[in-house]
UniProtKB/TrEMBL annotation:
Residues 134-207 bind DNA. Residues 70-88 have a biased composition (Basic residues). This is HMG box domain-containing protein. Residues 134-207 form the HMG box domain. It comes from Rickenella mellea. SMART domains: HMG. Residues 64-88 are annotated as: Disordered. GO terms for molecular function: DNA binding. InterPro entries: HMG_box_dom (IPR009071), HMG_box_dom_sf (IPR036910). Keywords: DNA-binding, Nucleus. The keyword GTP-binding does not apply. One of its GO terms (cellular component) is nucleus.
């Protein structure tokens, strides 16, 4: 059986290949190729492998089932595809028409050309050293410290950021200031008072003579640097002490008030003084009212 199958399939193929190769060598222009009819030059349906070994029925059914599923998925995907919303219509942009101003005609008939005015640049105000406010005088300790440094100078190394010698010198100056007597300190205090009086005179002259524009420019620059503005010196009017307040001050110093302080606070003591003030007659209150009127008149005269 096996031999018959091989003789029927393999032998004709080998013979056909040999004849085809021989005919290719022999053929040329004008020569016709002739082959015997019983030799097949190509495969026939009996020698085709697909027909010789047909597929099983199960595999064919499986392939058909997968093909059906793929087609079903494609159809469902097409149905469930979301339709894209149409794009919103853009509003037409309306261009504004340029309004052309007509030039005024003169009597002669010619157009008058109006030139644009250039912006006026603000003049920069220069501030000299004389225009600045005079510096306030130093405190008594500051005066003492400057003289202490003159006698005991501090030697700092150039390029180093170590300032411990300066701090030590400041501590030494504070100890020396505390060691001074009251008379020695009074000399520095008197000197600062004299300097302060001179500074007040210079300040008044400065505000009286300096231009307002310069003061505004100085305040503008101080504001940019975060410093407080310079204000004119305010004249404070002293108010006279009312009669009842005078009486209460005397009442607190009296022996009765000293005894009440031990058991009462300031509010309760003021209430007790108010009760005593109401019990007094006009003659007893007159000394306090006269003192009030005298002080008020003196304050008015000074202003």
């Amino acid at each position: 059986m096996v031999v018959s199958i091989l003789s029927a399939r393999v032998v004709p193929r080998l013979a056909a290949r040999t004849l085809i190769s021989a005919s290719r060598v022999a053929t040329g222009p004008g020569i016709q190729q002739t082959l015997p009819r019983h030799f097949p030059a190509s495969r026939d349906f009996t020698s085709y492998t697909a027909l010789a070994f047909p597929a099983t029925a199960a595999s064919a059914r499986a392939k058909s089932a997968t093909a059906r599923k793929s087609t079903a998925k494609k159809t469902t995907a097409r149905k469930t595809a979301v339709k894209k919303k149409p794009a919103a219509k853009k509003k037409p942009v309306v261009k504004k028409k340029k309004v052309v101003k007509k030039k005024k005609a003169t009597r002669i008939g010619r157009t008058k050309v109006v030139k644009k005015k250039k912006p006026v640049k603000k003049e920069r105000i220069k501030i000299r050293s004389e225009d600045k406010l005079p510096k306030r005088p130093a405190t008594p300790f500051a005066l003492f410290y400057t003289r202490f440094l003159q006698n005991n100078p501090v030697h700092l190394v150039k390029g180093s950021h170590d300032k411990t010698p300066l701090y030590e010198q400041l501590r030494a100056a504070s100890h020396a200031w505390k060691a001074l007597t009251d008379d020695e300190r009074q000399a520095f205090q008197n000197e600062t008072k004299d300097m302060y009086e001179e500074w007040k005179k210079k300040r008044d002259v400065y505000f009286a003579t300096t231009d307002r524009k310069i003061l505004l420019e100085i305040n503008r620059r101080r504001k940019l640097k975060g410093k407080p503005k310079i204000h004119l010196p305010q004249v404070r009017t002293l108010n006279a002490i009312p009669p009842f307040i005078r009486f209460m001050m005397d009442f607190r110093r009296s022996p009765e008030g000293q005894d009440l302080k031990k058991t009462m606070n300031s509010v309760q003591l003021a209430k007790a003084a108010g009760i005593r003030w109401r019990m007094m007659n006009d003659d007893e209150k007159k000394s306090y009212t006269d003192a009030y009127h005298r002080e008020a008149a003196a304050n008015k005269a000074s202003t």
